Amino acid sequence: MNFPKTKKENIVDDLFGYKISDPFRWLENGEDAEVKKWIDDQNEATFSSFKDEEFGIIQKELAENYKYTGFGNPFLVKGKYFYTERGPDENQSVLYYKNGIDGTPIKLVDPNILNKTGTTTIDYWGVSLNGKYLNYGLSESGTEMAALYIKNVEQNKDIEKIPNCRYSSRAWLPDESGFFYTRNPKPGAVPKDEATLHTKIYFHKIGENPDNDEMIFGQDRPKDDILQISISPDGKLLAINAAQDWSANDLFIYDIENKKLKLWIPKANAKFIPIFLKDKVLIFTNYKADNYRVLYSSYENMFSNIEQLREFLPEEKFLLKDVYVTEDKILVEYVINVSSKVRIFNYDGKPVGDIPIPEYSTLWGMSTRKDEKEFFYSITSFTFPPIIYRYLPDENKYVPYRKIDNPINPENYVTKQEWFNSKDGTRVPMFIFHKKGIRQDGNNPTILYGYGGFADILNPYFIRSYVPWFERGGIFAIANIRGGAEFGKSWHLGGIKEKKQKSFDDFIAAAEHLIKNKYTKSDKLGILGASNGGLLVSAAAIQRPDLFKAVVSSVPLTDMVRFHKFGMALRWVHEYGNPETKEELENILKWSPYHNVKEDIKCPNFLFTTGEKDSRVDPLHSRKMVALLQSAASLNEVLLFTAKEAGHGAGKPVYKIVEGEALKLSFFAKHLGLKV
């Protein structure tokens, strides 16, 4: 294939004695006119490589599949039900509320009206204790740098706006007079690449100028702090969770009345998440418990030594993932062999029941309030989109509330979970999903998906964008590799930093399992990953180019020597290692995709996709990797698609989702032999 020409520069860094070539560093500057032209040329080459008819068929099917009514779990607040819903022809979800479960929907926030291009989205929202105020974040074009709005619900009127509140954590005072929130720096206050860092906590009083909001936490703190807050029921204490990685944090208490800050629980190489109840504090933790447990303390003794905290729920042999609280119940989500189970406890920690969840299914969300008995939850699997259930406390019954239309017949499909040995002998599970009647003869077009990072868990879920693949007989597999948290803290730590190669080994072993068991063969096997998963599939394909026919790497990291210099990626040195230390650089150089492409590599076919305004993983990673692979002696396709007015993926309008997913499916179909 004839690729657009890309100039090379003679740039070599000397890092701890290692001579590191970086011939495509000029592609790092996405604002440069020459780089913009290069991006446009790559997009043109990518679209010209597909047959218009086949791409059009898949794009049309996906567009029809996305013409459905989608909705989130309602939140009940003093008789009002708040929820989001997206109509079949809308690009973004709209926020509504109803007075009573059967009330008339009242529209509160509609991004589709605010921006006709569909690129304005609601990033987050929440309601004050008695439902008087709504606060919500709106961002543009995938930047995720939201402005935080405060709306009077009864008047349906925005009353205040606070800029630079990226995924802001908020906590209202019980009297609704104001709230605490996290905020990023004003433009120009810090270098542009650090705009998503330097998060601090402020207090905003309703009716006052946000410019005068008092900062109560963040001064002289690490710039890569990840901050989460929660407030006690009496409004006297604010808990501050300050973390720089995904398995540990410091926990502070701010005395609101006396404006005093105190370290509550030091990091201790563990995670501590407080849950305030009326008479006690629960602490969800992995301290001396890889699979997590729940401790508790009275308010009088909350500053006791960690060892003196009492156990509310012990560690189990499987992961305790999350805790939800209602007025009279504590709902605990466990993950057992990567499927969800929910147990119900009373406030004394005594088990009182379970929520029924089918095999190979996932709790997709739960909306509870500490002052309400009623709650909602949703369940999904490979075979059905999320179904919302409502708990009726007077009848002690769970009833289906709303269902999203299902474009497939679940009876036609089979879900399996198979285990395989990784390179070091570790047993790793994988889900395999396909139509019934598939023959294991090694000839099935197959996509293997993975992530393996940041303690994320790949549960079974409905993958709407791949319905055309499933319906045509393609196989889809998900490998639950190390770096995730499917089996607790040790599973996460077993695939990061100096052990990052274990993630890649697990993924490669998953591919070998699929081939060995004749689900597919190398010429029919594609791999798919996004973000950290994009790094995963890029590294796996470079290490084992013989094993895969096609690779789709979306919004990936690839240059792991310079990743920490761009945007919020500084936070990720705790996951990947710090290239500015010799020992960790040595490890990174062993697996960094950009630094392991050999001149004569015969790589698989690659499609990289990214968003021009991605504020999480800078698109420079995709650009540099594509340029490097295109310059190598390969006869296969290396394509790049950069979505305009788009970011990492969150909040992308439906028409952009359809375009991007149609490209990926067309690419896999073309190279793996799936008939369109």
From TrEMBL:
Mind telling me which PANTHER family this protein's record contains?
PROLYL ENDOPEPTIDASE (PTHR42881:SF2)
Q: Is the keyword Hydrolase in the record?
A: yes
**Catalysed reaction equations from the record:** Hydrolysis of Pro-|-Xaa >> Ala-|-Xaa in oligopeptides
- Belongs to which family? Belongs to the peptidase S9A family.
GO MF terms, alphabetically ordered: oligopeptidase activity; serine-type endopeptidase activity
Q: Which PROSITE patterns match?
A: PRO_ENDOPEP_SER
Domain called Peptidase S9 prolyl oligopeptidase catalytic: residue spans: 467-673
Q: Which UniProt keywords apply?
A: Hydrolase, Protease, Serine protease
A Pfam family cross-referenced in the UniProt record is Peptidase_S9_N
> What InterPro entries does the database record attribute to this sequence?
AB_hydrolase_fold, Pept_S9_AS, Pept_S9A_N, Peptidase_S9_cat, Peptidase_S9A, Prolyl_oligopep/macrocyclase
Q: Which organism is it from?
A: Candidatus Nomurabacteria bacterium RIFCSPHIGHO2_01_FULL_39_9
Q: What class of enzyme is it?
A: hydrolase
Q: Where is the Peptidase S9A N-terminal domain?
A: 6-401
Cleaved signal peptide residues: none
Protease as a keyword?
yes
Which biological processes are named by the entry's GO terms?
A: proteolysis
Q: What protein name does the entry list? A: prolyl oligopeptidase
Q: Name one GO cellular component term.
A: cytosol
EC number(s) for this protein? 3.4.21.26
